Amino acid sequence: MSRRGLPINRLLPSGKVLVVCGRADDAAAWQDLLGPTQCLALALDDAPPAARRRPLRGASDHLSWQHHAISGLDGSGWLAGPADAFDPDNTAALLLPDPLDPPRSGARQRIGARQPAWQFFEDKTVVDALWDAAGVPRAQSIVGDGTADLARLGAIVDQGTGVVCSYQPIGAGPSAGGDGIWWWRGGLPPETIPTVEPGTWRVRLMPFLEGVPVRLHGLALTTRIIPFPPMELVTLPRLGRGTFLCAGAVPTLNDAAEFAQQTDRIGASLRERLGYRGGFSVDGILTVNGFIPTDFNARLTSAMEAAPSDRRVLLHAVNLLAREGIEPDISAVERLAEETFTAGTTCTIFGAATRANEHVPPETSIRWVGDRLVADPLGADGTLVISPSPRGWLLTATLVSDRLPDGGRVGPWAPEVFRLSDEVLGTDFGNLAPPFDTQPTAGLLWTPAPIFSPRRSVPVKGTAGFASGADRRPG
Fold first, then answer.
1. CA 322: distance to chain centroid?
2. DSSP secondary structure code for residue 121 in this structure
């Protein structure tokens, strides 16, 4: 899409613009979009060695580190040097693309900051109130203070298929990338689940939901809602740990028209009840009884992580402007969303590892042998690439969509990607399972276990996927 369709330069405030974003390729795209004389774009991934803390333990720690770095724009951190050299009188507009939303960012005027009420509902322990207010059916849940009697409380929501437990520190920002989420079956929480004192954390317990993890997402404007193409969330249970690996979002779903209607209804309710504007997403499970929400993200997410940088940056710019009540041409935004999220010939999933073998080539070609993935220099079914990241190592797996065994969804086959990465690249993803009760060659096996919520709920059925923000990084 050309910039003629989205005249971002004319819509942003005149004068200098300072952008702080995560990736170096995005920083280059911002400067190309706005012009190097008007815009300075700084990438947090380019932090000097002294400012890096590696490896970060997870997506939430990564986001916290990014926020700490941005707070240094007040003169105390490494970002202040280049920012002040570009804008010594602090008059430049400051753009912080999602998911960046630090409590402190210096004295420059921010464009497109989120309202606190919007961010509040990203808390997994309060989001059910949003579904109830919006009239969106949900599963039963219980919210507790601390971790006393988790097994007893979990039994109330467990219909014989398992429990999902989300932790939220009181007074802290929302977690990211599946952090703070555990699951168990058989009545007893896993030994890996931490014990916390009352008054420090809130805990939400809900049943496992059987079905396909799905992300509905879109853009709320003052005049209408623009639904984005829905995404399959690749969310894999870590066997033996009771946690999840969130490996990204891929455009492999059908029934786009029905999903678009649901997205439009949710977005319209957000706009009506919260005055919401900008990007949003609702993660949940597509069950035999329909879509059941689990999480809300008041932002654009990393579902567009695999798209070209120029597309991502344009959509980030539109999002920030929408929060200010400034809207580009709607048809141009619809085309941009279609280009950004529509399925292509390949799909990409990601994973953060704490170790890798630095003595082997960082890229390997792959091919499928039946339902087994193998390394092959001549393989034409995809590639695995490992690269350093603030969290240790980042695996980027590109899969040729029509070469997946049995076609269709990615989730049932994704564990093979991470198994082969451990074998060939020396990563430590460990024992991963496809979504529970998913048979790649036979579809989903449904087991009758009706679960009812006391308010605005529908019966759903227990165990297979749990969507929890399957992000490459907190975005």
1. 20
2. T
**Helix (H/G/I), strand (E/B), else coil: 9:** helix
With 0-12 / 13-18 / 19 or more C-beta atoms within 10 angstroms meaning exposed / middle / buried, residue 450 is exposed
Q: Look at residue 7 in the predicted model and tell me its pLDDT.
A: 63
Cα 156 from Cα 141, distance rounded (Å)? 9
Could you count the other beta carbons within 10 Å of the beta carbon of residue 346?
15
How far, in Å, CA of 163 to CA of 175, rounded? 19
Q: Are 357 and 425 in contact (CB under 8 A)?
A: yes
Q: What do you get for the CA distance between the two ends of the chain, in Å?
A: 23
Instruction: Give bridge partners of residue 297 from the DSSP assignment.
Output: 281
Higher pLDDT, 446 or 302: 302
CB atoms near residue 370 (< 10 Å):
7
- Give a three-class secondary structure readout of 79-104: CHHHHHHHCCCCCCEEECCCCCCCCC
Tokens read off for 141: 């849940």
- pLDDT tens digits, residue range 311-328? 999 999 999 999 998 888
What's the residue count for the chain?
475
Q: Which amino acid appears at position 77 of this protein?
A: G
| Alpha carbons 201 and 296: distance in angstroms, whole number | 19
